[in-house]
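ingest -> validate -> predict -> emit
validate: passed (alphabet ok, no gaps, 286 aa)
predict: started
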Amino acid sequence: MAAPTSASAPGAAPVEGVASPRRLPRAVGVVLATAGLLAVTAASAAVTVAVGKPDPGPAVVAAAAGASPNAGQNGRSASPGTGPGASASATAQATPTAAPTTEAPATAAPAPKPSSTVKGSVSGGRHDGDLRFFLLPIPDGGESYGPADGMTMTDDEVAANFGNQDGIMRILGSYGYKEAANRTYRTADGKAEVTVTLMRFASTGGAGDFARNYTMKLDPIDIDGDPNAHGYVHKPKQQAYTGSMTGISSQGDVQYTIDVDVKGNPDKALLSELMKRQREWLSSGG
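emit:
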């Protein structure tokens, strides 16, 4: 079966100063591999936009209570040249006075991070408990889209992630698919958006076979530090547009995919580091 055409928009103009939208679903074509396994081929489906920081909250302006633009001392008018004491008042007002000294307010302690309630454990490559527990932790300063713990994906959401390809859930079932979870966050510097997707299978073999047969219609790249991984990159035509990278691998009974969106040409070192850390997190269970 031929893969659907890409939904990319090569001529789209960049959108400046706004947060990048969530990654669009991949268009997926499914064919039979020579070894008899079902191969999953994903095509790029990301709309070209520029990555911007989230819109800041409304500014808070502190105004002096009861101040009047023409108010002088003791509430009298400060207009010069009126009244017998005008000259003396002007001289007095021109005399510099020392500003009162005040102590700087104590800096408030940062709010503690909410503790996660999801739990999980790993033994012999089998991951038990809440699958969200095994999502790569958000680095310090990162901003989560949605719940900080990530989200458990419904079958409809999983199918949408693969372009709602006919029979995709049946195909996943042939690999022993059980459940999925994901989380998207923005890095502290605002320069990258990272989406981590985990899919748990009934066996290590099922997860590994799915990862090996999961390909994309993009330029392939090597992934350092993760021996089972392979990756793909999309380089934008202009540096003002968004580039993307995807890494695919498995550890035990979990297949994981990491998508990274950045402004301009992506640096695969970032993806390699994330893939390595995700593999270690799945291996140790935190």
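The longest helix spans residues 268-284.
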